[in-house]
Each structure stands twice: as structure tokens, then as C-alpha cells.
Design goal:
By secondary structure, the protein is an alpha/beta fold. It has 17 helices and 13 strands. Helix 4 (95-113) runs parallel beside helix 5 and helix 8 packs across helix 12 (324-333).
Length: 455
Amino acid sequence: MSAAMFESTTKPPRKVLIVSPHWPPVNAPDLQRARISLSYYRQYGWEPVVLAVHAADVAGTLDPELESTYPADVRIVHCRALPLRWTRRLGLRNLGLRAWWSLWRAGSRLLRSERFDLVFFSTTQFITFTLGPLWQRHSGVPYVIDIQDPWRTDYYERPGAPPPPGGRKYLLARLLAFLFEARTYRRAAGFISVSERYLSDLARRYPWFQGKSQTTIRFGVSTADFEYIRRHPPAGVQLVRQPGKIHLLYTGAAGPIMPHAVNMLFSGFQYYRTIRPENAARFRFHFIGTSYVPSGQGKPSVLPVAEKYGLTPWVEEVPHRIGYLVSLALLLQADALILLGSSDLAYSPSKLYPYYLSGKPILGVVFENSYLEGLMRELGCSWLVTFSPTGSKDAVNQRLVAFFDHAAAGFPAGILPPRNDALFNRRYLAEPLTEAQCDLFAAALARKPPGRHRD
């Protein structure tokens, strides 16, 4: 063994404090990047410690088996949040706001008592990002931010956008973003983003952003998760299958930013019923976990659209959130998967990657020139139906008719574009994505932290 190799293997690991308020057994989309990376940080020279909020204080679906999907010896430090039974009377449900003070105290204790090289915020609880500059001021430890969604956005002010959800809550979130985004991001050592567009938007907004360490790392998926559910299939998790039927599945939220795609899908199937009634009778559409609320509390968002097109007998919707591993088990039971695009053209859904890894045919109904269209064309394996709000439905309907015909025929060989497995394995599996994170961490540490300035 060479001296250089010996030195690289004996060099003590750097230490990263990962701030992820949501953490298993809670099931939430924004914890998944950190969760699937925990198995690989050490091999790239980083020792992770996770700072999270105790599950008892989180309003969300619990998925206890997620705790079996990362190394048991990784230290998870929990803090408490103001109880919802108190704060909901004031209209305050946001976990970041309820846990902010507890996270501050717990993180401060860790940074005082142990040597950390970096703090990594991997969450969509944006207000917790403001802890970064406070901790940096007292401990000198730099921080990196994972931009899974834009904190400050003008999406709901754009022409044709749906009304913003949440009323006063939305106005408060917008005010906090306006007050804190610039000063928080300006002092960050680096950024990871799921979309190049989020980074380019920030560069247009802030002239100084261009000089920051930054990289785009999409959401990814772990093969170990599929291996786990094949060894430990969730009990009682089954699609409502019927003999001879063709079962199409969509998993995850289907909120107000997706009505165009839902309407295009059902309008196309309504047309298919008129020209292929016998084939159409075989189809069943399953929309599972379409809201973020626990069981028994969700309101259907897809069934009302299906009713408008007379398709209620063809459509099943489960509006409450389901566990991540449960969703993977359901993917393997479906005949094909549905992926709906958003009117936010920068939308980058994490579900694309488990969809791909499941090996099932994918029907993508997406906006023209959207980020998602580019991703799906790049990866292959998907039957793409693209549309624009002002475009003709005729071409969309014909493309959907062709997909339904192929599904009825059992997806003959050569119908779908070839899968780009080499690209997928290089860009979207957990191990290479963790390596890319660690490269960004190193680049961020190499930069001198910014001093005081005007934002």
C-alpha cells in the first residue's frame, strides 16, 4: 500500500450535523435524501449525526420500518417541539416554527461539546435555515443548505396559477421568506438543489449567489429499500385488484399544482371510452396517498375530477398519506405507473426514481418544456404525453389512446423507449448521490466564510 493510500485510509473523518426535523419513524418526503445517504457518508470520509424532532411532536404519518433502512449505529439526537394541542389553537402547525427554539438549543449544545466540520440542512422546514448563521456566529461551523423546494417563490402570483393554499399561513410563510432568505443564504457556505432552475432563480435574484459553492443533485433512490420490502413485505398492503383488469397507479400528493395534468388524463380516457369501450372497461386507476394528512383526515382531490368526466367507477383514491415502504410495495403490484406533471415547470418529483427502479411502464402526463419532461426523456422507459394549457387536446388524446392500447395489449416489446440504466445508476442511486454531496461539502469548506455585509 502506498503512503498516500495509507494516509487517506487513516485520516480521521470529518463530522457533519444533519438538521432534518422530520425523521423516521415519521414518513415525510424531505427526510428521504438524508435517510438514504446515511449508509454511505462514512465511506466518503464523513461521520453523520442527525438532529431531528421527536416523532411524538410531529403531525404526520408514521412508518416505523424506515428505522431499519439506515445504519443502527448512526447517532440521532432528538429534541421536542411545542405541542400541537397548544399551537393549533393559534393556527400554528408548522414544525419548523414549533421546534425552532428546541433545535437551536440542541444544536448549540452539540456544536459546543463536539467538533463538527459542517452543518447540513436537509429539510423543507425553511425557517430552520435561520439557525445556520446563528450557530456559525457562535461556533464558527459553516453550513450548507439543501434546496428541495424554493423558499421564496412568485409561483402563485404568475398568470394562470391557482390560488395560494393556506390563507394567512401562506402570507406568513411568504413574509418569513422575504425577511430571511437573503441574509440566511448569503452566509451559507454552499448549496445543493434538486433543480438547476432553483439555483438560476437565486442567481438572478441575488448577484452574490453566483460565487457560492453549488451543485444540482436530484432526489435519488436506494436499491436497499426495494430489497428490504421484498424480504419484509408490508402486511395487508394490496391494490384492490380484479381479474382481467389493468391497474394503473399513482402514489403521492396530487395537490392544486396538478389539476391540468389530472384533467388531461381523464379527458383522454373519457375519449378512449367512446372509441374503445371494451378495452376501457378493463382499466382501473388508483391514486394512493394524495394528501399529506394522516388516515381518516384527507379529502379527495382526484375523485371530484373523475366525477366531472363520468369516470368514478374507474377511479380509486386513498387521500391520506401512506408509508414510503408501503408505496414501494404498491408499485410492484401495479401493471403501470402514472406520473403527473406540475404547472410549476421546475417541479422535480422524487417519486420518479422509485418508479424507474420498480421496472414498471410509466405514463407521464407533463407540461411541455418542463424540467420533468427533460428528466423523463433522458431516462427513457416512459410513455410521455406533453401538453400546454393553450394547446390542442387532439394530439394529447391520440397519444393517450396509443398508451391505453399498448397497455391493453400487455405492452409489446419495443413500445417504450429503451431504459438508460447506465445514466440512472450513475446519477440517481443513493451511493453516487452521496458522493456528490460529500464533494460539495469539501468545496464549501474550502471557501472562506463571508464576513458582515449588506444583503
